Amino acid sequence: MSGISLEGVTKQYPGGVLAVKGVDIDIESGEFVTLVGPSGCGKTTTLRTIAGFEMPTDGAVRIDEDEVTDAPPYERDTGMVFQDFALFPHMTIYENIAYGMEAAGEYTDEEIDARVEEMLELVELPGVADRTPDQLSGGQQQRIALARALAPRPKALLLDEPLASLDKKLREQMQVELRRIQQEIGITTVFVTHNQEEALTMSDRLAVMNDGKFEQVGPPEEVYNDPDSRFVADFLGTANIFDGTVTAVDDGYATVDCEGLTLRSKSRPGVEPGADVSVIVRPERFRFDSASADGGTSTATADVNVFEGEITFKRHLGSSVELRVETPDGRELVVVRRSGMDKRSPGDRVTVAVDAEECRIVEA
Amino acid sequence: MATETSTSDDGAPETGRAGLKANAKWYILSYPLAWLVAIFLVPLGMLVVFSFWVNIPGGQYEMGFTLENYTRFLTSSLYLGQLWLTIELALVTAVVSLLLGYPMAYYLARMNRPWLRSLLLLTIISSLWVTYVIRAYAWQVILASGGVLSSVGVATGILSEPQSFYPGYWGLVVGMVYVFVPFMILTLYSSIRTIDGELLEASKNLGAGPARTFRRVTLPLSKNGIMSGTALVFILALGSYVLPRLLGSSAERTLPVLIEQQIMSESNYPFGAAMSIGLIVVVLVFLWVMIRFTNVTTASLGGSEAIATDDDDDDSVADGGSSGIGAGLAGRLWSAIGNAASSIGLTRALGRIAQAGNSLVTTVDSKTREAVIWVTFRLYVVAVMVFIAAPLGIIIAVSFTPEQFLTFPPGGFSMQWYAEFFTDPSWIGALLNSLGIAAAAALLSTTIGGVLAFALDRFDYRGAAIFGTLGVLPILVPPVIIGVAFLVFFLEMGFAGSRTSIIVAHGIFYAPFPFILITQGLSEIDRTYEEAAMNLGASPIRTIRTITYPLLRANVISGALFAFILSLNEYIIAWLLSLFLVDTIPIQIFNQLRYSYPPTIAAASVVFIGLTVVVMTAIDRMSGGIWE
């Protein structure tokens, strides 16, 4: 099998818009990499340069060690699943799936028959070969689009927000399905989405894109737990963000003055006193601290940050509960607890604590 | 519709109102129907009746029943020969238009420079509405001995002496293609544009090169456009009078020309009527074949791209009974076309050349191949664009000649022919007539088409499909037949040879344009706006006035402007109904072309083209590009 590498890929449109600003990534053979970011961040353009629909203005694209930077799309051996599936409306499902093999011209009719059959079984839709795309539901069309992309045995699978047009239930089902099929055949896959949950649940690695650049590339846990930037922390999941200035760094921990609030956080290399930073706290890192009820302002002692406040809002998220806690100085904390863990409700005065160990510092 | 059923379900006190409402929908429909049935179908019906009446030489006829007219038409080798020539010319025009138009339409649909696309479309569309008379005249200027082509030929040494390329068969074909190729381009354009770009990307992603992608995806998906465009051009070419008259020799007298001669020169109304019925039969047979064997509908020919795909099921059921006959007929039809039309052979030859070219370029790498295809394609597109734009440009150039005769290139610059145009009372009279008739006809068309569109959109009628077809039917009837039918009708009514007669005829003939545009506008209006207005207490009338009409205004006004511009440029109906008593600009230019070629004609044409372009631009502005 084969991997994909992008080297300094840059795309500037004729109007002067720089959509992609020199991205580098080596995707290993069989790896599932997700490009995630807000709309307009360049993720789709990046995917389209891999497919050959956009020619990069600078940089190189390699698929399976071969440079394909200038190759037209039909000579690249990638299988793409489009956002709206792009199933040919004038062809049957069979003809759609056989299309790529016919274009390749190196399969006999028997091989094509067998392969179409095999693909339909892979996507668990045997028996629809003679139907036309408009006779299938959205979820079925999605599976056929995947079967069609995989049928000619491409070197890489490219997925352009293929789940965006499905409803929530179907989307979750397809997330699992897609990952199962991808692992079953072990194909290198690049997946584009703006949905951070999809990015976190499906990928081996994810690349968070913003403004044409990769902000951070890494396994989902790492990117979620150790965000490199304020953007990444904010974009993936929910984050409590405290902007401030570093006053001291000792022993791997930093003390940060955030406008009247002093926080202790795990530091990172390169953070010096005087630097403007943001302290990131994931909502599920907070705990309610019933012991400390001395009624004072929040303090940073013994590497624990403590906040006093009042619950203003509560909502159930199914397996968890989200609470908003307002502190006397007007900050709002988002706290997530496992469902059924406590019975606190709006109006209750609470003490919220988080270990400095659980806090992260990023450049502001 | 929903409000109606709910009120009538409410019980006894409501039934009176609901009954009134149920009648109201018929009152509303009666207005357009009165025009379309009483003053459109009745004259056509009279034409049928007339065709069986007895002609008395010397311009008289009497009531009776004779098959003599049809016998004469169907047994004379002259008339049958000219009938076949008419069909052949229309076929050749349609096929050549398709070959020229497809690449152009493809380019327009796939290009990504909006300003250039608007410019090209506006050029194509503007030329579309300029009267056939002026456009045929432009080709006379180009093809005549001492004209543009001949002068260029002599200057470059290709021709040893000046030569005229008209009147004659090929000069006529060039003129017909020039006039009708915009219809082909616009039909194909809207069809190709609806093809999702993602499908083409998907094809390439699956390993299909440009040729395969075109053959397997683009071409099959634009099949409806190809069918509609070819049918449209075929029908328009079949009914064309002005071009065969001005560009053809006496050998190229097509059926419309013969019909006009019978009516205006021979005053043989019954025989003219019989030939008109013959022409209608050809159109109907052709339409029947199209609808029967493809999924093109009359509505799609009328310009709306609503191709009825959901009818497929019904068709397959009906197929059971008649498939034997149908298949046999189709087979015979195809072999007849294959044997008779040399144009089909031409298509094959072109296909083979393309194939050879393709196999030649597959030997080089894909990048060079794409570059070669791209350059060839662009050159082709530029050539087609020149073909469409140059003739009117040449008219503009010669209108400024200082000389007494039309010459090209003009030997200087002078405004004298414009001065002549604006000081000659007969030209000014014709201009005022044209404008007055067009304005009144536009108003009539818009009320007929608009009310019909509104009624069909808002109420459920038994036979709504028939009324809808009636709304687009007028433009499918060759104008020369409309002219003859109305002439016969108005002669009986006693007001032929008046402006009113032309206004009524144009008003009905062009009603399909406002009808189609307003239907389209109504279907795009989100009904919840109206529901919101009613929820806020607005009465139905107030809702129409404050919500529906403002949202629809662009469509209503563009519909009216289209009817205006078409009426302004119409020749044959106006000519037949004028009985030599009314002059419009197209009639005046046509008459002058018969005798001499004063450059005033060019100046008049330019004034008229300018007027047309102004109105077209207004339509485009108004509707934010209805052609998009």
Automatic annotation (TrEMBL), chain A:
GO MF term (any one): ATP hydrolysis activity
Keyword GTP-binding attached: no
EC number(s) given by UniProt: 7.3.2.6, 7.5.2.13
Keyword line: ATP-binding, Cell membrane, Membrane, Molybdenum, Nucleotide-binding, Translocase, Transport
Residue ranges crossing the lipid bilayer per the database entry: none
Matching InterPro entries: AAA+_ATPase (IPR003593), ABC_SmlMolc_Importer (IPR050093), ABC_transporter-like_ATP-bd (IPR003439), ABC_transporter-like_CS (IPR017871), Mo/tungstate-bd_C_term_dom (IPR008995), NA-bd_OB-fold (IPR012340), P-loop_NTPase (IPR027417), PotA-like (IPR005893)
Localization annotation: Cell membrane
Signal peptide coordinates: none
Catalytic activity: D-xylose(out) + ATP + H2O = D-xylose(in) + ADP + phosphate + H(+); tungstate(in) + ATP + H2O = tungstate(out) + ADP + phosphate + H(+); L-arabinose(out) + ATP + H2O = L-arabinose(in) + ADP + phosphate + H(+)
Enzyme class, UniProt record, top EC level: translocase
Protein's membrane topology: Peripheral membrane protein
A cellular component term, taken from the record's GO annotations: ATP-binding cassette (ABC) transporter complex
All copies of domain ABC transporter, residue ranges: 4-236
Protein task: Part of the ABC transporter complex XacGHIJK involved in the uptake of xylose and arabinose. Responsible for energy coupling to the transport system.
Entry similarity comment: Belongs to the ABC transporter superfamily. Carbohydrate uptake transporter-1 (CUT1) (TC 3.A.1.1) family. Belongs to the ABC transporter superfamily. Sulfate/tungstate importer (TC 3.A.1.6) family.
PANTHER family (UniProt xref): SPERMIDINE/PUTRESCINE IMPORT ATP-BINDING PROTEIN POTA, SPERMIDINE_PUTRESCINE IMPORT ATP-BINDING PROTEIN POTA
Quaternary structure and interacting proteins, as annotated: The complex is composed of two ATP-binding proteins (XacJ and XacK), two transmembrane proteins (XacH and XacI) and a solute-binding protein (XacG).
Name of this protein: Molybdate/tungstate import ATP-binding protein WtpC
Organism encoding this protein: Natronorubrum halalkaliphilum
Upper classification of the organism: Archaea, Methanobacteriati, Methanobacteriota, Stenosarchaea group, Halobacteria
Gene name of the record: potA
Automatic annotation (TrEMBL), chain B:
GO cellular component, one term: plasma membrane
Coiled-coil residue windows: none
Keywords from the UniProt entry: Cell membrane, Membrane, Transmembrane, Transmembrane helix, Transport
Membrane topology: Multi-pass membrane protein
Location of this chain's protein in the cell: Cell membrane
Transmembrane segments: 33-56, 77-102, 114-134, 141-160, 166-189, 225-243, 271-291, 377-400, 427-454, 466-491, 503-525, 546-566, 601-619
Chief location bin: membrane
Membrane keyword on record: yes
Cross-referenced Pfam families: BPD_transp_1
GO biological process: transmembrane transport
CDD domains: TM_PBP2
Keyword Membrane among UniProt keywords: yes
Segments forming domain ABC transmembrane type-1: 83-292, 431-619
UniProt similarity note: Belongs to the binding-protein-dependent transport system permease family. CysTW subfamily.
Protein name: ABC transporter permease subunit
